[in-house]
Design a protein that fits this description.
alpha/beta; Helicase, Ruva Protein, domain 3; 2 domains; 3-stranded antiparallel beta sheet
Length: 188
């Protein structure tokens, strides 16, 4: 640990205050954005800042984070050429792929499972595995993930971080502190 990937003196989005924070390689941070109509505005703005698609003087990002986005097959390709999980991993995965047993069994997937047939958790799981395989700094939005599956996802992220990865988790859970990671509460 040493080099900062992101450092902030604190900033405000729509009257809600992000406290000062810093994240170095090999760390895992969490941000609790609360629920309500402001969640998506905060989330989207925060993502733009951490992926370096937008800049603010109060936050410096030395290397962009990769958002583990939900997988979506476009309507045209979904009908004519539906992608399987195995095909997606082979084409878009990196050098550090998870063992197949971990990838498929934990999320109750099969190599030939079609992307458009996956549930919300499975799509998030595969997206996270793609980011891990590429060795990226991960930005993970937990919105829509049930607590049962959230525990599995956070366990995988924590394991990735223990091996030298870096991750930021954004959520709206009331009990997110049970994961034992450093959390920042966004307040007005």
């Amino acid at each position: 640990m040493g080099e900062f990937l992101a450092k902030s003196s604190g900033f405000t989005i729509q009257n809600l205050r992000f406290p000062p924070f810093e994240i170095k390689r090999g760390q895992l941070l969490g941000f609790h954005l609360g629920g309500g109509p402001h969640y998506h505005i905060l989330r989207n703005e925060f993502i733009l800042l951490l992926t370096k698609k937008k800049r603010r003087p109060e936050i410096a990002v030395s290397e962009p984070f990769a958002l583990a986005e939900l997988l979506v097959d476009r309507a045209f390709s979904r009908l004519l050429f539906p992608r399987s999980v195995k095909n997606l991993i082979e084409k878009q995965g990196g050098q550090n792929s998870l063992p197949e047993s971990r990838l498929y069994e934990q999320a109750e997937l099969f190599p030939n499972s079609k992307i458009n047939g996956l549930n919300h958790f499975q799509k998030k799981w595969v997206a996270l595995c793609l980011c891990i395989s590429k060795g990226e700094h991960i930005l993970l939005d937990m919105l829509g993930i049930t607590p049962k599956y959230a525990d599995q996802i956070v366990d995988l992220v924590a394991e990735y971080v223990s091996l030298g990865g870096t991750a930021i988790v954004v959520d709206n859970f009331n009990d997110s502190k049970v994961w034992g990671i450093q959390y920042y509460q966004i307040r007005n």
